[in-house]
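CO-FOLDING WORKSHEET

Operator: S.A.
Ligand of interest: nicotinamide-adenine-dinucleotide
Run index: 335
Mode: holo prediction, single chain
Checklist:
[x] sequence pasted
[x] SMILES validated
[ ] output reviewed
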Amino acid sequence: MSDLSRARVLITGAGGFIGSHVVEAFLTAGATVAAMVRYTSTGHRGHLDHSGEALAAERSGQLRIALGDVTDPFQMDTVVAGHDIVVHMAALIGIPHSCVAPASHHAVNAGGTLNILEASRRHGVSRVIVTSTSEVYGTAQTVPMDESHPLCPHSPYAASKIAADQLALSFHRAYGLPVMILRPFNTYGPRQSRRAVIPTILAQVLAGVKTIEIGNLTPRRDMTFVEDTARAFVLAAAAEGLEGETVHFGSGEALSIGEIAEHCLRTVGSDARVVAVAERERTADLEVDHLECDASKAKRTLGWEPRVSLDEGLRRTADHLRAHPEGDRVGEYAV
Ligand SMILES: NC(=O)c1ccc[n+]([C@@H]2O[C@H](COP(=O)([O-])OP(=O)(O)OC[C@H]3O[C@@H](n4cnc5c(N)ncnc54)[C@H](O)[C@@H]3O)[C@@H](O)[C@H]2O)c1
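OUTPUT RECEIVED:
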């Protein structure tokens, strides 16, 4: 479906960091969007409560919010019905937390995906995009990494995402479900949880902290600004002929956490020091040392390339943090 202005799109995980930007990108493309946000008794809708575009689209009828839980197969059957495209992003994403709560990560990430796939099959959805993660590869065995890189989960989180991906691919093979896997490398930008490395560093520096304590400085990560990530989802929804395919995307540059921290300090003109502290380090087996994306398939099949440089993305993330010094509070406990 190349014309998204006629498309009825369901997005799960829509109140989250990336999901809220993906909702905005589909609204901009003209789609009619149902945004599924995890139900909580607060009634908050995560970051969508702070998105001017989302609030305006809700008023005009272009956006509808559905509160629910992907682990509920009966509800997913109702929520998926009537949509042409399903973008499935809902997940529990805590890598260390998945080590203490592996069953809930498996239930949401693998079980929730199974419910979405089954409902999509029953309701004849014409494209299902399942959101994967570069964590499925573990530490790079060859660089840059292309989609044929071996899978090696270091955490129950990564294993649950592999399970979800493989279920999706099996639904394509077994039932012909028109599913594709879209696999972002690390994403950063406005609305990201302050537990993630870039917002952690920037928020502390902006608060005047002079010694920033983080975990290991040596792992290398390939960072994409969230607007570039969101654009990949819109391109994937509109692209023809990617059924059963996996496409990943990233900047193609792997910087160490120490180098990323230096960029953060430069962005806000700070003379703070960044130090590694043992208690914040992940254990050696859990840590993924190197992720570096070969995005040539994304360029060839989706026409996707990153547009926002790291320094520009950091500047925009810092601007967001300056504008919300108290944190995205409602977003944080509702998502
Ligand atoms: N942030 C990254 O760098 C990154 C990189 C690669 C892939 N991803 C993937 O992108 C997706 C979005 O991640 P994010 O960083 O925006 O995280 P996030 O935590 O901000 O968003 C995840 C959303 O899923 C929702 N959710 C969790 N459990 C749910 C349930 N049982 N039912 C319904 N909704 C539920 C949460 O409420 C949240 O809004 C995830 O699938 C993640 O694995 C993220």
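REVIEW:
Residues 4-334 form a domain with the Rossmann fold fold (CATH 3.40.50.720).
The chain has one domain: 4-334.
[x] output reviewed
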